[in-house]
Amino acid sequence: MPIYNFNAGPSALPYPVIEEAKKSMFDYQNSELSVLEMSHRGPIYEEIHYGALNKVRSLLKVPDEFEILFLQGGASLQFAMLPMNFLTNEKKAAYILSGSWSEKAFQEASRIGETYELASTKADNYRAIPFVPLDQCSQDTSYIHLTSNNTIFGTQWISYPNNKFAPICVDASSDIFSKTLDWGNIDLLYAGAQKNAGPSGVTIVILRKSFMEQANKDIPKILSYETHVKTDSLYHTPPTGSIYLLGLVMNWIEEQGGVAAMEKFAAEKASLLYSAIDNSDGFYKGHALKDSRSTMNVTFNLPSKELEQKFVKIAEEKGFIGLKGHRSVGGLRASIYNAVPKEHVETLVDFMESFLKEHK
Ligand code: PMP
């Protein structure tokens, strides 16, 4: 039976990447060495490491004024590392709350220094991306943090607030490589790789050099961005296998036509699902307001919890996995990251239509 993987992360990897990895991961270029057993200081791994860093730069069109890092600890470590580096005693950090992950980032920063909520849609169960009153941003703001795509609630920013008031720092864990970015308006961006960039174990951090120069020097060396910049992310043993697979995913994105092509595919796939929701006469109800809808995580409800359970059960029998909504919000969620083929989304839409016919 074919499997249709709609997991929220770790999630589907491109099929050609899995095929390539099967061949090369355990006998790299006929060296009889697995990537996993190579020294991270040796020439073969260095080629893999710098190759992957360069591909991230070229695919995301990252300008020279930015550094790119491969770190560990997931996006969750960035929730702490960002304020440790930039939230100094005399300043405050502004957080925009658009979902559970931004709340987590806010809570972690609040343990480190002074923070404030600049905007939030919590009262509306995070159905929308908040309006940001930038004029209310206090003068002593060290940075503004936002989550570009809200994996759990299924909402996504179209464009980020202007960074002329304070540096903009973005958690792009669930939509990196799915849309082109305006670097003029970003000072730091981070993402765990396990959705659009590869397997878990490696986190991409991209930061503006001039911003990094303002970082707090008085923190443990391992948590300082500068340490990793100075050592090309080889300060300590990097997650070599994860970085190797990330490089293969970068090659695949390039072969598909780059990030602009990913953006187009994402919009096409999302519109198939949103049309199925909108044309269901209210049977399927989207969680996100239309102008905040995500192209990566499509969240929806059915008329009752019983029907939702039945939907998930029958879907699983047919090979669909990962459709159950996050435990904090319930309902259904289809995560349609870059590697999810359009045909899988079409098959899901067919299933939604037949389920609707039988149960409305
Ligand atoms: N931010 C967002 C937007 C996420 O979706 C996730 C994970 N699903 C995280 C942060 C946490 O990432 P990690 O598990 O890599 O720490």
TrEMBL record:
PANTHER family according to UniProt: PHOSPHOSERINE AMINOTRANSFERASE
Protein name from the UniProt record: Phosphoserine aminotransferase
Cofactor detail note: Binds 1 pyridoxal phosphate per subunit.
Catalysed conversion reaction: O-phospho-L-serine + 2-oxoglutarate = 3-phosphooxypyruvate + L-glutamate; 4-(phosphooxy)-L-threonine + 2-oxoglutarate = (R)-3-hydroxy-2-oxo-4-phosphooxybutanoate + L-glutamate
Taxonomic source organism: Evansella vedderi
EC number: 2.6.1.52
Main location per the UniProt record: cytoplasm
Transmembrane segments annotated in the record for this chain: none
An example Gene Ontology molecular-function term: O-phospho-L-serine:2-oxoglutarate aminotransferase activity
UniProt cofactor(s): pyridoxal 5'-phosphate
The Aminotransferase class V domain, residue ranges: 3-348
Function, in words: Catalyzes the reversible conversion of 3-phosphohydroxypyruvate to phosphoserine and of 3-hydroxy-2-oxo-4-phosphonooxybutanoate to phosphohydroxythreonine.
Sites bearing N6-(pyridoxal phosphate)lysine, chain numbering: K195
Key words, A-Z: Amino-acid biosynthesis, Aminotransferase, Cytoplasm, Pyridoxal phosphate, Serine biosynthesis, Transferase
Gene3D superfamilies documented for this protein: Aspartate Aminotransferase, domain 1, Type I PLP-dependent aspartate aminotransferase-like (Major domain)
Pathway: Amino-acid biosynthesis; L-serine biosynthesis; L-serine from 3-phospho-D-glycerate: step 2/3
Record's keyword annotation contains DNA damage: no
Subcellular location: Cytoplasm
